[in-house]
Amino acid sequence: MAQPDTVTRILDTAEVLFAERGFAETSLRNITSKAKVNLAAVNYHFGSKKALIQAVFARYLDPFTTRFHAALDELEARHRQDGSEIPLEELLETMARTVLEVPAERNSLKVFMRLLGLAYSQAQGHLRRYIQEEYGSVFMRFTELVRRATPELPDAERFWRLHFVLGTVIFTLSGLDALRDIAEQDYHEHVSVRDLVRRLRPVVVSAMQAPLPEPPAQQEAS
Amino acid sequence: MAQPDTVTRILDTAEVLFAERGFAETSLRNITSKAKVNLAAVNYHFGSKKALIQAVFARYLDPFTTRFHAALDELEARHRQDGSEIPLEELLETMARTVLEVPAERNSLKVFMRLLGLAYSQAQGHLRRYIQEEYGSVFMRFTELVRRATPELPDAERFWRLHFVLGTVIFTLSGLDALRDIAEQDYHEHVSVRDLVRRLRPVVVSAMQAPLPEPPAQQEAS
DNA sequence: CAAAGTTGGAAACAATTGTTTGAATATGGC
DNA sequence: GCCATATTCAAACAATTGTTTCCAACTTTG
């Protein structure tokens, strides 16, 4: 499409407004007026509002997948040498590190997380489809590694637990501002994102390694 | 406001559409045409779209808070007799049971959960404020009981962990349809809501009882 | 039965939405 | 210099939004 200043001004403004208010609640006029560009610029450079939304995501997810693939490459290479399986903690740790790393440059982890949360919760069917098609492969690679790291878990159980912890992370980090306000007000304790990740670690690990649920419906367990 | 058939037809239709597509993405014309009532009926009976949204929530949350208070009363009374503290599992169990119980009549747990998820994720400031003001007290009562059940947890840690598991539950149950599709397709296994709650139980308990995170910088031991 | 008040309905309201148009301006290659 | 292309801009577009108006139909009540 195009490269220069207008495009990034639009993207910078759009991602903030989207994160603050959602997609449907943010009009193109909101974006263009705040970005000080002409209204038609969005349709000119991106084609449509849908395409703009996808472009906002691509600017985060493209570098993320690149780095995450690289990090997994390195992790696999290291463990291929000493012949050991990659432990679950290391996988989770790697993912967390990559997630923290990518938006660090623009100091916008909060925006990134909020966008991810919106992608799941807003109806926007096209978005989920886009993300699935464009970035599904890296997620599949990760889950396959998790599978090898947790051979004791039935496949279905692991599937659900991964989504359980995904929910924890996205919910917490995407609602971070509101929660942080409450926490600071109630406990007079400032929480940084790194702080939260530190708190999340043992919880997520314990969640993944929780005992298996009792088998369904039958009154009699062994 | 009013009582008869039109009002409930609007509410029934609105909650389904809201759950499917979000608030901003659902127009009053969508609702009224599908409910086969006149467009003006919404503003006549509820006053505004905002008020309709709140009414949809109230229809779930009012009975929920009533029953939850009652269930907690009973739980407290039972444990006051034998002098023991209420264990965490029982608290979580009670909440889960109440959540499952309330919408069971209309077979709309999915809708209920999806609405809760939207309430958190959609910007809709008025909604969060409304829910907080209207139903904050029952949540505070619950957290106080959780506090007594987990005296080993620092207050801030407990606060965060409660929101961690809240995220798990809301995220999972509100995105249930999509996740269920994937799960059935990949593992040929049908998952009911009760099934999911069964899977959630050990995960949530383990998450709450996870070891404390290490203070800001140190190595880890299992 | 008739008056009063409540509910239902078609139409119009003003505001806002995403998108398109066509002319003006800047930019870059020759 | 000039031409072609790329970008910006103001204006208008058609569609949709929540809300209001005014009148008909109904139910209740005296």
From TrEMBL, chains A, B:
Domain HTH tetR-type stretches: 4-64
Keywords: DNA-binding
Molecular function GO labels: DNA-binding transcription factor activity; transcription cis-regulatory region binding
Residues annotated as signal peptide: none
Entries under PROSITE patterns matching the protein: HTH_TETR_1, HTH_TETR_2
InterPro entries named among the record's database cross-references: DNA-bd_HTH_TetR-type_CS, Homeodomain-like_sf, HTH-type_TetR-like_transc_reg, HTH_TetR, PsrA_TetR_C, Tet_transcr_reg_TetR-rel_C_sf
Feature: DNA-binding region: 27-46
Record-given protein name: TetR/AcrR family transcriptional regulator
Species of origin: Halomonas eurihalina
Taxonomic lineage: Bacteria, Pseudomonadati, Pseudomonadota, Gammaproteobacteria, Oceanospirillales
